Amino acid sequence: MNDASTHPRGPVSRRLLRTLTAAPRTDDDAATLLRTVAEGVRTTADVVADDDLQLALLCLYELHYRGLDGVDERWEWHPALLGARAEIEEAFEAALRRDVTVDVEPPRGSGEAVAAALFELTSRDTGPGLARYVARRATPDQLRELIVHRSVYHLKEADPHSFMIPRLAGTPKSALIEIQADEYGGGSLERMHSVLFARTMRGLGLDDTYGAYVDHVPAITLAWVNVMSLFGLHRRLRGACVGHLAAFEMTSSIPCRLYGNGFRRHGFGDDVTWYFDEHVEADAVHEQIAGRDLAGALAVAEPQVQDDVVFGAATYLALDERMSVHLMSSWERAESSLLAPVDAAA
After folding, report:
1. Concatenated DSSP letters for 2-16?
2. How large is the greatest C-alpha to C-alpha distance in the chain, in angstroms?
3. What's the whole-number mean pLDDT along residues 303-322?
4. What is the pTM assigned to this prediction?
5. Lower Cβ count inside 10 Å, N or C end of the chain?
6. What Å distances lie between residue 13 and 33, 91, 282, 329, CA to CA?
7. Which SUPFAM superfamilies does the entry mention (predicted)?
8. Burial, 85: exposed, middle or buried (Cβ in 10 Å; 0-12, 13-18, 19+)?
9. How far is it, in rounded angstroms, from Cα 339 to Cα 230?
């Protein structure tokens, strides 16, 4: 991600980006960063919707992915940055655990019961119907906006959940690797889902550079992405990570069919729709693996994480709905859902 072109959204992200321009060291700058983060966390009304904190968290997480241009890579494990990240993460997780509704409680020791609970959660039609809106009503500009929002994650698709591979064993580990192998194209570069998504972006005249549109998307989109890193980077949250991935896979196949239809409705061809068409078939298989062999098997092998499995799934659904509501409410008002306009080729 290009740190130099990222614009701060408040005192926390401003101080972080300023700190990252220097060589790693322990000094007053690091102490100032920690104080600034603590103040930002203390005063925020809603950490999920806080542009300043969510941008700072995204930048901190990116040090564990492809890094930030012009930033010394030794910052990745610097104690001051880990402390700053932990401060935001604690508030973020607390808000999710407070606000995300979990109203299913499968019996202990039954992988099938856990899988059934996840299928029940993900089958409820309580959301705003973003995929149906895209299929029937979205304009070409709105379709591009959708892709801009999703690009912050899909250009690194699967990477956050892959952090969990060494933290699992047995059947859950095997199931996760099976899903992730498909996400990475089964050894074929052109079939990697992140590569397919980049192709969609180019077909729409958008910039497929990793992180190109971070400045354009609001806090809820950043939170939708950040929660995957929160769950994936912490072993204690392995249950939530698995539940999140299961819900992601279980709610992908049918929406992707509708998304593809929305693009075809405006005459876009296979270069744009291949990404979605690939997921119609792949995720119909993945949802079964994720529900039973991954989430269900983990709940049996490690019953102490079962509640987090369900929490992770519910968190995915809650944040996805919140982002969908933002997009659709903006479009219903004939407004852009982005913070800044995006230039795209015709």
Report:
1. -GGGPPP-SHHHHHH
2. 57
3. 97
4. 0.95
5. C
6. 9, 16, 38, 27
7. Heme oxygenase-like
8. buried
9. 24
**Residue 134 CB neighbour total at 10 angstroms:** 24
Q: Which two tokens stand for residue 137?
A: 């009503």
Cα 253 off chain centre by: 17
Which residue is associated with the tokens 């290009």?
2
Residue 5 reports pLDDT greater than 70:
no
Q: Which residue has the tokens 């550079």?
A: 209
CA dist., res. 252 & res. 281, Å (int): 10
Helix (H) or strand (E) holding 23: none
Query: In sequence order, what are the residues at sequence separation of 6 or more whose Cβ sits closer than 8 angstroms to the Cβ of residue 66?
Result: 1, 156, 210
Rounded CA-CA distance 202/216 in Å is 17
Pairwise CA distance, residues 286 & 289, whole Å: 5
| 100-155 tens-digit pLDDT | 999 988 988 899 999 999 999 999 865 559 999 999 999 999 999 999 999 999 99
Q: How many CA atoms lie within 13 A of 220 on its CB side?
A: 15
Residue spans of the domains in the chain: they are 3-99, 111-332
Answer yes or no: CATH 1.10.10.10 is held by domain 111-332.
Answer: no
Task: Give the whole-angstrom CA distance, residue 311 versus residue 235.
Answer: 15
Q: Model confidence over 58-110: pLDDT tens digits?
A: 999 999 999 999 999 999 999 999 999 999 999 999 999 999 999 988 988 89
**Spatial distance between the Cα atoms of 219 and 58, rounded to a whole number of angstroms:** 10
* CA-to-CA dists, residue 102 to 13, 41, 140, angstroms: 32, 25, 36
The predicted structure's pLDDT at residue 128: 57
Q: How far, in Å, CA of 144 to CA of 343, rounded? A: 10
- 224-255 pLDDT, tens digit per residue, is 999 999 999 999 999 999 999 999 999 998 99
